[in-house]
Amino acid sequence: MAMVVYLLCALTSLACAMLLLRGFTRTRQKLLFWSGLAFVGMFLNNAILVVDVRLGPTVDLSTWRSLPALAGVMILIYGVVMESRA
What we know:
The chain is mainly α. It contains 3 helices and no strands.
């Protein structure tokens, strides 16, 4: 049951990323671009979580799983700061 929830979280993050990036291509608002990239990082985080759970306790991917999420949040913070200066 937990695997289903993890997959749904990954798919939701991917859907959000796709919608935000599609919105960016239509309107060229940069904040949509930064938010879309942040959700790509969150999707990668969830995808690695699914792999980590499938591999079981033999392999710990928690460090690798945290890196895309950290990168996504850093990208979003950078985008918000840059947009506030503009």
